[in-house]
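S1.2 Input.
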Amino acid sequence: MIMGPENKLNSEIVTKLGPIELEIWRQALAFQDKRQDLGHAATVTLWAIKLLETENADRGIVVPAAILHDIGWCQISEEERMATVRRALSKDEELRVRLKHQEKGVRMALAILQKVDYDPKFITDIVEIISQHDTRVGFISEEDSVMRDADKLWRYTREGIEVDARLRGVSVDVCLQELTAKIERYFNTKTAANIARKELKMRALEQAK
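S1.3 Output.
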């Protein structure tokens, strides 16, 4: 049987997670990828693990935050979820919806972390990152920086760009131009920025074929 991209990602992530991380993943799986972005949660988590190789951040905070950061979208209406992807809302409405998904996500993440008996010393930091991962200006910790940079790297993957182009009704070339224009100011870590540049080069080669 040929596996789709999301199944390959899920298979890969199982090999990268420790036992308690894997239990968090399993508890969250039904709530993931609710904006027609299959593979998003796995991709972000894998990028977070990659960034931890070079960044001074605590895996005990970063990985659960990456796994759980977007589960709140499952509590938001389909209309509102997709309106954020299509950039069809005013700034105020966009902020309202994103704040709501963060608030819902905190509650769900807290419930999952408590259910798996996760170390309490990490939980406050994890839910604080989730609480403003889309709306916070600046970064409150190395862990916040790594998780949010991993989230942004999704947009530079082939799958992320294809989802964005399809749902917004624009070309892949337009997406690539936008991503290229903002790369210098978009990431907090140099590692993530360098990864993004490499991803853009690969996307350009793919487009040239």
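S1.4 Remarks. Residues 91-115 form the longest helix (25 residues).
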